[in-house]
Amino acid sequence: MDKSLDFSGLKTYLLKTLSLDSNAMEITQISGGFSNLTFLIQTPEGKFAMRRAPFGNKISKAHDMVRECHVLEALQKAGYQKAPKPLALYRGENFDQAPLLVMEFVEGVILRNKPNPDFTLNEIEFRRLSENTIDSLVELHLLELKESGLSDLGKPEGYVERQVLGWSERYFKAKTNELPEMEKVAEWLKLNIPQTKNIGFLHNDYKYDNLMLDFEQKTEIKAVLDWEMATVGDPLMDLGTSLAYWAQADDPNILKMFNMTHLSGNMTRAEVIAYYGSRTSFDLTNILFYYVFGLFKVGVIAQQIYKRYTQGFANDPRFAGLIHVVKAAGKMAEKSILTEKI
């Protein structure tokens, strides 16, 4: 855990708000994520999870713990059962101190990018998990918006165009290397924005390593994690990002680092699209655009983290190679545009 993080104020706050024993409280950082910092709080009263924005330059809204807290509260009101319950939001004593979000700790297993000898899945189980994963995504996209208050979390009108322009701007602000394929893709996206208007609730970072699975019922999704980018907009933008993370066996190895979807038994991207289409009424005619956008977005996220690494704000050695992810995502997107294949 970073030694510069002082949790004394948080402990006092949790003693007052949740009656947690601050003297017996232990806070340790949980490894695994590439973005926001996640911590485990252990107390005599039980375990809790805590989230904090990363150090260095922030993506607009992407690391906002206050907003994530509001999203979790709205999901609770909507009756959604797979989001952790928010318990406390500590804003600190100074305006420049990053807010800390304390929430329910969900016991389970997260599939990372390497096999876990204590949690293995066979081909049949991977098939079932991939189906459950898309079923859960569909459930999110079809949530009732108005009565639940979820509609207040985003502005669906013009959402796709704002996303394309916004992620393009973020790329050029975080640019460190000359990668012409990323710039070509950015321009293509601007010229090919679909006119179809789909509206739904989006997670915006939906992939295996943001799912908490049950220890015993291995394909059961107990919780969906990391809600800080959730909003209301075109659900196919969410699907496109998930497809970008959904690596296949024949994909470049560098793009397999985020998911285990490339292992035998999982659906292919084409099967994911067909499965999703069979469970929704959304028009998938322009799915190529959404997939290309997803790849571009993945590349931009990697670029932003890589820039923070080069600036010394993040010292995780994994971040040193993220520029290769940017390049691979750009090339994959450019290839899809030229071949019109996903």
From TrEMBL:
<dbReference type="InterPro" id="IPR002575">
    <property type="entry name" value="Aminoglycoside_PTrfase"/>
</dbReference>
<dbReference type="InterPro" id="IPR008271">
    <property type="entry name" value="Ser/Thr_kinase_AS"/>
</dbReference>
<keyword id="KW-0418">Kinase</keyword>
<dbReference type="InterPro" id="IPR041726">
    <property type="entry name" value="ACAD10_11_N"/>
</dbReference>
<dbReference type="GO" id="GO:0004672">
    <property type="term" value="F:protein kinase activity"/>
</dbReference>
<dbReference type="InterPro" id="IPR011009">
    <property type="entry name" value="Kinase-like_dom_sf"/>
</dbReference>
<dbReference type="Pfam" id="PF01636">
    <property type="entry name" value="APH"/>
</dbReference>
<feature type="domain" description="Aminoglycoside phosphotransferase">
    <location>
        <begin position="26"/>
        <end position="259"/>
    </location>
</feature>
<keyword id="KW-0808">Transferase</keyword>
<protein>
    <submittedName>
        <fullName>Predicted kinase, aminoglycoside phosphotransferase (APT) family</fullName>
    </submittedName>
</protein>
<dbReference type="InterPro" id="IPR052898">
    <property type="entry name" value="ACAD10-like"/>
</dbReference>
